[in-house]
Every structure is written in C-alpha cells, then in structure tokens.
Design brief:
The protein is α+β, with helices and mostly antiparallel strands and 394 residues long. The protein contains ten helices and nine strands. The mean pLDDT is 98. The structure holds 3-thiaglutaryl-CoA and flavin-adenine dinucleotide (FAD). 3-thiaglutaryl-CoA (TGC) binds next to helix 4, helix 6 and helix 10.
Length: 394
Amino acid sequence: MSEISFERPDPLDFLDIDSLLSEEEILLKETVKSYVDKELKPNLGDWWDKGTIPHAELAKAFGDMGMLGMHLEGYGCAGTSATAYGLACLELEAGDSGIRSFVSVQGSLAMFPIWKFGSEEQKNEWLPRMATGEVIGCFGLTEADSGSDPASMRTTAKRDGGDWVLNGSKMWITNGSIADIAVVWAQTDEGIRGFIVPTDTEGFSAPEIKKKASLRASVTSELLFNNVRIPDEFVLPGVASMRGPLSCLNEARFGIAFGAIGAARDCFETALSYSKEREQFDTPIGSFQLTQRKLVEMMVTVQRGTLVALHLGRRKDAGTLSPEQISFGKFDNVRNALEVARTARSILGANGITLEYPVFRHMSNLETVFTYEGTNEIHTLVMGQALTGLNAFT
Ligand code: TGC
Ligand code: FAD
C-alpha cells in the first residue's frame, strides 16, 4: 500500500510540480531564473519607472542564452521543446511582463512567421541573425481601428511591377521603434499577406507611444507606411489569409499562459515574505487568519495555473494542442494572475503601491497582458464557440 509523506510541502512549490519536469527543463528554468534574479530584477523598477529598457544589451544576452526563437528548429535556433519555451517565458515574466514580451515577440511573432511561412532564402537571410539578437523584429497586426477584429485591417499592399507598395498604419506594436525588420500583415487582392519590411525602407517610420501606465519596461510603437516599396522576395509565400497571423498568435498566447503565472508567482513570493516580516499589533501580519487565507488562495492559484500551463506544454510537444485549449490557458491564467497581483498588493499595504516591490508593476503590466494577444472576452468567445458550435463573431 502506498504511504502518505509527512514531509512539509515547499511553500514555493507546494505540489512539487518540479518533480514533473525533466532534468533539462529544471536546468533551463534555473538558468533563466538566475539571470532574471541577478541581472534584471535589481534594475526592473528603474527601467519601468523611466519607461526604457537596454534593448540591445538584452537582445545580445538572450541571444547568447539561446532564448530567441528557442522552440524553432534549424537556422541557428535552439530547437527546444515547447514546454521548455513556456518555462523560459514563466521565469522571464517573474521578472517583468515587458521582458517576456521582448522575447516572445521576437521568437513567436517575428521569427515564427518567417520560419513557418517564409522561403528558404528568407529563413537563411533573417533567422540566424534574429536568433543571436543581432536583428530585432516586431509584428504588425493591430491597427487603431482593428484590434480584436484584425481581419478588418485597412493597411494595404498593392503590386506594382515586381514590387509591392504598402500604405496604412499599425498601432500598439511591441519593439516597433527598435526593430530592424517588421513582419507586417496587409490586405492584398490575394487575401491577407505577410511582408518582411526592413525598417530603414523609405516611407517607413515607427514613432514610440509614450505615457503608458502599463508594460513600461517595453517599447510600444505605431508603424506608419507611406508608399513603402518592398520587393516580391520580401513577401511570405506560405500563406494568404488570417491563418498566417493567427498561427503566430497561437505560439505567443501559449507562452503567455506560462508567463502570466511567473508574474503571479513573483507577487505571491513577495507577499509571503513580506507577511512574515511586517508586524502590526505586535505580531507578523502573516499570523492573521485573513492574511493566511489570502496567501493560501494565491498559492493555490499559482500552483493550479502552473499545472494548466505544463499540461498545455506537454500537449503542444505531443502535437495535440488546439487553439481553443491555448485560449483556455491564456484566459484563465492571465485573469487569475491579475487577481493574485491585486491580493498581493493588499498584503503589502502602502508599500504595495511603490516600485520598491515588484507587485504593483506586475499588477499594472498584467492589465496589458489581459488585453493583448486576444482580450479575455475574445478567448471567452473562442471557447464559447468550441462549446456550442455557434460563432459569436458573426
Ligand atoms: P476566422 O474567420 O475564424 O478564420 C480566418 C482564418 O484563420 C484560421 N484560424 C486560425 N489559424 C490558426 N490559428 C488560429 N487560432 C486560428 N483561428 C482561425 C481559419 O481557419 C481561417 O483560415 P482560412 O485558411 O480558411 O482562411 O477568423 P476571424 O477573422 O473571424 O477571427 C477570429 C478571432 C476573433 C478569434 C481573431 O480575429 C482573434 O483572435 N482576434 C484577437 C486579435 C489578437 O489577438 N490580436 C493580437 C495582436 S498581437 C499582440 O497582441 C502581441 S502582444 C506582444 C506580446 O505577445 O508580448
Ligand atoms: P478593442 O478590440 O477595441 O476592444 C475593446 C473592448 O471591447 C475589449 O474589452 C474587448 O474584449 C471588447 N470586445 C471587442 N470585440 C468584442 C466582441 N466581439 N465581443 C465582446 N467584447 C468585445 N498588437 C500587435 O499586432 N502587435 C504587437 O506587438 C502588440 N503589442 C501590444 C503591446 C501593448 C502594450 C498593448 C497594450 C497592445 C499590443 N498590441 C499589439 C495590440 C493588442 O493586441 C490589442 O490591444 C488587442 O488585440 C485588443 O484590441 P483593442 O485594444 O483595439 O481593443
């Protein structure tokens, strides 16, 4: 008969989820965590406050660590499992959602479409340099009037001899002003197509969006196209429909299902440690029943979200993960992470509103994460359609 173990659970891994990971996965997780703890966390409050990141330095460091396009095979990419990519996203977002965004936009939204839909020449031209961080990419899908409904986009590309001419604009584009290339989705006579636009092309500009109150350790920009002329060799040949950009979103949303739990875990850990040190009424606030309730709720949410993410990772590696299941992870883990961040904020009292602690920063970032990559409502409706067979978007 099996026995019950009376070993007290680790407060930071209550269900011993690490025991479900391979040695390689644990090593990768620890490597990323150690980099985030040593190199990023001491600076993140400041970067967030100033609204800047040392993007070139970060790109090089992430390139050296093999984290850019890490789940892609060939062309200088590391070719790890999807689960490993997810775990890296989790550890990065335990630092800051903006840092995870930097890596997921590069790998899942800029490199993936080239890898999946690009020609051999395009792959050889761009992917190896994007994997090292020498070339930074961005992903232009959203427009000012086309957010949740990107198929309504107005940016156009028209054939002109052997070239294409792009006109229009994109909005809210991560890494836009620092990118060397933009993967841009535009309406054409042949359907929606993807274009690799070198950002030094005449007629292209990418003004940065300022005064953000969320995701401040990340560059967000408009992309403007004024008769931008692109040779035919820069069009992604493999797709001519919304299936192109939506396939990229599957990859990035998968990373977010992991990443959001990283932010939640950091909030929980911060609140747990604070609750044992902070005293009121001559006793640590962690001794109050109401605080213990909050801590337990946070811990359970983080553990449950980690299991969901890991399950998605295993399914993706097995080739059985569906977009609707990715929506489950993005929908549930992000809303729960936001709840954890708010609860942690309350435990820190007034200190919770400062950038001395990471909690408010995570809480504010998670408002963006709740909205980008498909809002909470969009993922609800994707799953609603899977349940009922009825499409709420038409
Ligand atoms: P629909 O008419 O249903 O389908 C059009 C075509 O797309 C195919 N498809 C998919 N393919 C791959 N993966 C998916 N998940 C797919 N969903 C649909 C479909 O088979 C069809 O293919 P074909 O070949 O027959 O043409 O699509 P729709 O236009 O009605 O859209 C449905 C909806 C609302 C779910 C979609 O538009 C959506 O997901 N909207 C949300 C937009 C969004 O998430 N934007 C994110 C922008 S990028 C971003 O936020 C980056 S943040 C930075 C960071 O990640 O850190
Ligand atoms: P809207 O679509 O206008 O939605 C407003 C509200 O209406 C939401 O609550 C939404 O859920 C709701 N709504 C809309 N349609 C429905 C419906 N059918 N039923 C019920 N409710 C509905 N985009 C990119 O292409 N590339 C990027 O790199 C990128 N980075 C971003 C970085 C940041 C910091 C931010 C904030 C956004 C970024 N985005 C990017 C854009 C992001 O994907 C969009 O903001 C998102 O898709 C939502 O679009 P919207 O903001 O226009 O909101």
